[in-house]
Amino acid sequence: MSVVDSLVDLVGDTPLVRLRNVSANVAPTVLGKVEYLNPGGSVKDRIGLAMIRAAEQQGLLAPGGTIVEPTSGNTGAGLAMVAAQRGYRCVFVMPDKQSNEKIDMLRAFGAEVVVCPTAVDRDDPRSYYRTADRLTEETPGAFQPNQYFNPANPQAHYDVTGPELYRQLGGHIDCLVSTAGTGGTITGVSRYLKEQGTGVEVVGADPAGSVFTSEEAGPYLLEGAGEDFWPATLEPDLVDRWVQVTDRDSFLTSRRMAREEGLLVGGSAGTAVWAALAAAADYGPEATIVTLLPDTGRNYLSKIYNDDWMAANGFLEKVGTAALISDVLKHKRGDLPAVVHVHRQDEVPEAIAVLREHQVSQVPVLERTEPGFEGERITAVVGSLYERALLDRAFSVPGEDGKTVGDVMGPPMPTVDVRETVEAAMQVLTGDQPAVLVSEGPMLAGVLTRSDVLDYLMLKP
Fold first, then answer.
1. Cα separations (Å) of 361 from 386, 431, 433, 453?
2. Among 33, 44, 102, 303, which one carries the catalytic annotation?
3. Which domains are present in the chain?
4. What pLDDT, on the 0 to 100 scale, is given for residue 374?
5. Pick from 35, 231, 318, 321: CA 20 to 30 A from residue 286's CA?
6. Lowest mean pLDDT among 84-93, 305-314, 326-335, 382-391
């Protein structure tokens, strides 16, 4: 019988897979080490196990204790898996840009999850780092592994991951490509391989906006890679060069991996593969390039693998209902004003003349603004006027000469943002609602009708 005592015994020994299709246009052999086949779904299983073992050996974690850790999700899963088997309580603190799948996964393990804002300084009391520190201090028997400063993190990769790669490749590896978050993986593996005299070049794949390749930290959507500070677990001298990768290139490469290789990987794997293909330009057909694929794409089904999310963030070619509302507005007849509208104070015949002049069936009603005001704010919208409603009223309520638009208007149309998708707009354009307002920040950007959407889908080039 082949039986293990727990899933913890299955951490490591992940396979190398030849990336034949995505690397078809480069000369070297490009291999991916599939870390999502660790039982907890990521490379972080390795350090979750190592950090808990080290804490137990050092007397920092007693039976029945609590593990508190700031995490983007995967380290939390690795820790939670080991903790569930050994009877520890877990509290994980996460930045709010992480996917719902990761939060739900940690809660499924029985962990408590605290979500903190991403867009604050590391030393801000609201940051997920400082919140984790506070919870550690406040919780009796708590231990924080602190993956960014824990030497057991890179040591796990020096002791296990590096030797695995060396053995799998028979010592022949020309280039290692890895992302870096805590830096533990790239540090531990690189140190081991370099000590074996392989002559390996180590390439760090880094998201645009991370301090590893940017002078100042900036926003980016990739999860689990890059940082806004330099962790103690990262040894920059072991990285021979860095390749900066945009969110767009990372996510589209992840999707290519799923569709061309059958490997459903996360965004950081897309970052690493894109950097590996870029590095391949410097190598010939005899070279071997290995890249680490840190986690599974199942953590990102609502983001990277969701067409609406990708389109809304500008990462997809916009086709069909995944197109943005802004594209539909650009496609409308060029001779129309950006926003055909009437004012509450206008008389009804004046409003009808506007409808006829521009050949539209509905217009928003705005409060008249002071002379010289450029543009109309969405807050100025006070109602709506529909040709059909005017016609019905003319038949049912005769003799209303002298009425103003304010006397006969209906409620304002629903509002959608210019950055939303056509599919999102169509969810509003249902039933008796033939048109919606489109906003761009605080400004009124236009009116979108069912006919506009139909023209775009059927008649655009």
1. 6, 16, 12, 15
2. 44
3. 10-42+154-312 (3.40.50.1100), 44-143 (3.40.50.1100), 320-459 (3.10.580.10)
4. 46
5. 35
6. 326-335
